[in-house]
Amino acid sequence: VSIIVGAGVTGGGIALGLGLWALLLADCVQLLVSWVGPVVGMRRVVPDVRFGLTRVTTTIVLGFIGMPAMIVIGSASSLFDSQVDKLVLAHNVGPKASAMFQIGSQIVLSARGVALIPLAVLLAGTAELYRTNPHRLRHLEGLAGRSTQAIASVTAGGFLIFSSSFLRVWLGPGYGGAAL
Prior knowledge:
The chain is mostly helical. Helix content is 81%, strand content 0%. It contains six helices and no strands. The longest helix has 38 residues, at 134-171.
Protein backbone atom coordinates (compact mmCIF):
# COMPACT_ATOMS: atom_id res chain seq x y z
CA VAL A 1 0.00 0.00 0.00
CA SER A 2 2.77 2.43 0.90
CA ILE A 3 4.50 1.89 -2.45
CA ILE A 4 1.31 2.75 -4.32
CA VAL A 5 0.81 5.85 -2.20
CA GLY A 6 4.46 6.84 -2.71
CA ALA A 7 4.16 6.41 -6.48
CA GLY A 8 0.98 8.47 -6.48
CA VAL A 9 2.56 11.27 -4.46
CA THR A 10 5.61 11.21 -6.74
CA GLY A 11 3.42 11.49 -9.83
CA GLY A 12 1.32 14.23 -8.26
CA GLY A 13 4.38 16.16 -7.16
CA ILE A 14 5.90 15.96 -10.62
CA ALA A 15 2.59 17.09 -12.15
CA LEU A 16 2.61 20.06 -9.77
CA GLY A 17 6.13 20.95 -10.85
CA LEU A 18 7.99 20.03 -7.66
CA GLY A 19 10.77 18.22 -9.54
CA LEU A 20 13.17 16.33 -7.26
CA TRP A 21 11.33 17.59 -4.18
CA ALA A 22 8.46 15.32 -5.23
CA LEU A 23 10.71 12.33 -4.50
CA LEU A 24 11.49 13.59 -0.99
CA LEU A 25 7.81 14.29 -0.32
CA ALA A 26 6.83 10.87 -1.63
CA ASP A 27 9.47 9.18 0.52
CA CYS A 28 8.20 10.94 3.65
CA VAL A 29 4.58 10.08 2.87
CA GLN A 30 5.50 6.48 2.08
CA LEU A 31 7.37 6.18 5.39
CA LEU A 32 4.40 7.62 7.28
CA VAL A 33 1.93 5.27 5.58
CA SER A 34 4.14 2.24 6.22
CA TRP A 35 4.19 3.02 9.95
CA VAL A 36 0.49 3.85 10.41
CA GLY A 37 -0.80 0.32 9.73
CA PRO A 38 1.50 -1.51 12.19
CA VAL A 39 0.97 1.09 14.91
CA VAL A 40 -2.82 0.94 14.59
CA GLY A 41 -2.72 -2.86 14.51
CA MET A 42 -0.47 -2.97 17.57
CA ARG A 43 -2.81 -0.69 19.49
CA ARG A 44 -5.75 -2.96 18.66
CA VAL A 45 -3.99 -6.25 19.45
CA VAL A 46 -2.08 -5.11 22.55
CA PRO A 47 -3.74 -1.96 23.88
CA ASP A 48 -1.51 -1.87 26.99
CA VAL A 49 1.61 -1.10 24.97
CA ARG A 50 2.45 2.57 25.10
CA PHE A 51 4.20 4.37 22.29
CA GLY A 52 6.51 7.13 23.35
CA LEU A 53 10.05 8.21 23.90
CA THR A 54 12.27 6.46 26.38
CA ARG A 55 15.66 7.27 27.81
CA VAL A 56 18.49 5.49 26.00
CA THR A 57 22.02 5.23 27.30
CA THR A 58 24.94 6.76 25.43
CA THR A 59 26.48 3.33 24.84
CA ILE A 60 23.37 2.12 23.01
CA VAL A 61 23.17 5.32 20.94
CA LEU A 62 26.82 5.03 19.92
CA GLY A 63 26.24 1.39 18.98
CA PHE A 64 23.31 2.33 16.77
CA ILE A 65 25.34 5.08 15.14
CA GLY A 66 28.66 3.23 14.92
CA MET A 67 27.62 0.04 13.16
CA PRO A 68 25.71 1.66 10.26
CA ALA A 69 28.50 4.22 9.92
CA MET A 70 31.05 1.42 9.55
CA ILE A 71 28.88 -0.31 6.95
CA VAL A 72 28.47 2.93 4.98
CA ILE A 73 32.17 3.72 5.16
CA GLY A 74 33.03 0.18 4.12
CA SER A 75 30.75 0.27 1.09
CA ALA A 76 31.29 3.93 0.15
CA SER A 77 34.41 3.22 -1.88
CA SER A 78 32.61 0.58 -3.95
CA LEU A 79 29.64 2.86 -4.51
CA PHE A 80 31.84 5.83 -5.37
CA ASP A 81 33.97 3.73 -7.69
CA SER A 82 31.05 2.32 -9.68
CA GLN A 83 29.32 5.70 -9.95
CA VAL A 84 32.48 7.47 -11.10
CA ASP A 85 33.06 4.73 -13.68
CA LYS A 86 29.54 5.22 -15.05
CA LEU A 87 29.98 8.99 -15.10
CA VAL A 88 33.28 8.75 -16.98
CA LEU A 89 31.83 6.23 -19.44
CA ALA A 90 28.73 8.36 -20.07
CA HIS A 91 30.82 11.48 -20.58
CA ASN A 92 33.63 10.06 -22.72
CA VAL A 93 32.04 7.12 -24.57
CA GLY A 94 28.29 7.64 -24.36
CA PRO A 95 25.22 6.64 -22.38
CA LYS A 96 24.98 3.25 -24.08
CA ALA A 97 28.39 2.26 -22.69
CA SER A 98 27.34 3.44 -19.25
CA ALA A 99 24.14 1.39 -19.45
CA MET A 100 26.07 -1.69 -20.56
CA PHE A 101 28.47 -1.22 -17.64
CA GLN A 102 25.53 -0.95 -15.22
CA ILE A 103 23.87 -4.08 -16.57
CA GLY A 104 27.09 -6.07 -16.49
CA SER A 105 28.02 -4.96 -12.98
CA GLN A 106 24.53 -5.77 -11.66
CA ILE A 107 24.72 -9.28 -13.10
CA VAL A 108 28.11 -9.79 -11.44
CA LEU A 109 26.77 -8.51 -8.10
CA SER A 110 23.79 -10.87 -8.36
CA ALA A 111 26.09 -13.81 -9.07
CA ARG A 112 28.26 -12.85 -6.09
CA GLY A 113 25.18 -12.71 -3.87
CA VAL A 114 24.17 -16.23 -4.92
CA ALA A 115 27.68 -17.52 -4.27
CA LEU A 116 27.72 -16.05 -0.75
CA ILE A 117 24.46 -17.67 0.41
CA PRO A 118 26.22 -20.53 2.28
CA LEU A 119 28.02 -17.97 4.44
CA ALA A 120 24.68 -16.99 6.02
CA VAL A 121 24.65 -20.42 7.68
CA LEU A 122 28.12 -19.70 9.01
CA LEU A 123 26.91 -16.51 10.68
CA ALA A 124 24.19 -18.31 12.63
CA GLY A 125 26.46 -21.26 13.35
CA THR A 126 29.21 -19.04 14.73
CA ALA A 127 26.81 -17.37 17.13
CA GLU A 128 25.52 -20.72 18.31
CA LEU A 129 28.67 -22.85 18.38
CA TYR A 130 31.40 -20.39 19.37
CA ARG A 131 31.35 -21.24 23.07
CA THR A 132 29.58 -24.59 23.11
CA ASN A 133 31.34 -26.65 20.41
CA PRO A 134 34.41 -25.07 18.76
CA HIS A 135 35.32 -28.29 16.92
CA ARG A 136 31.93 -28.40 15.21
CA LEU A 137 32.29 -24.69 14.38
CA ARG A 138 35.61 -25.37 12.60
CA HIS A 139 33.91 -28.15 10.64
CA LEU A 140 31.07 -25.77 9.72
CA GLU A 141 33.58 -23.12 8.61
CA GLY A 142 35.29 -25.60 6.30
CA LEU A 143 31.99 -26.84 4.91
CA ALA A 144 30.68 -23.30 4.30
CA GLY A 145 33.96 -22.30 2.65
CA ARG A 146 33.98 -25.31 0.33
CA SER A 147 30.30 -24.78 -0.53
CA THR A 148 30.91 -21.12 -1.32
CA GLN A 149 33.86 -22.00 -3.55
CA ALA A 150 31.83 -24.64 -5.41
CA ILE A 151 28.84 -22.35 -5.94
CA ALA A 152 31.14 -19.49 -6.99
CA SER A 153 32.87 -21.74 -9.54
CA VAL A 154 29.60 -22.97 -11.03
CA THR A 155 28.15 -19.44 -11.06
CA ALA A 156 31.25 -17.94 -12.66
CA GLY A 157 31.33 -20.68 -15.29
CA GLY A 158 27.66 -20.25 -16.07
CA PHE A 159 28.14 -16.51 -16.17
CA LEU A 160 31.00 -16.76 -18.66
CA ILE A 161 29.15 -19.23 -20.87
CA PHE A 162 25.58 -17.93 -20.85
CA SER A 163 25.60 -14.22 -19.93
CA SER A 164 26.25 -12.82 -23.39
CA SER A 165 23.46 -14.90 -24.94
CA PHE A 166 21.11 -14.08 -22.06
CA LEU A 167 21.66 -10.35 -22.46
CA ARG A 168 21.27 -10.56 -26.23
CA VAL A 169 17.90 -12.30 -25.82
CA TRP A 170 16.80 -10.15 -22.91
CA LEU A 171 17.81 -6.71 -24.19
CA GLY A 172 18.15 -7.27 -27.92
CA PRO A 173 21.07 -7.06 -30.31
CA GLY A 174 23.93 -4.79 -29.37
CA TYR A 175 23.92 -5.43 -25.62
CA GLY A 176 25.63 -8.84 -25.56
CA GLY A 177 28.94 -7.06 -24.94
CA ALA A 178 27.70 -5.85 -21.54
CA ALA A 179 28.54 -9.28 -20.16
CA LEU A 180 32.17 -8.95 -21.13
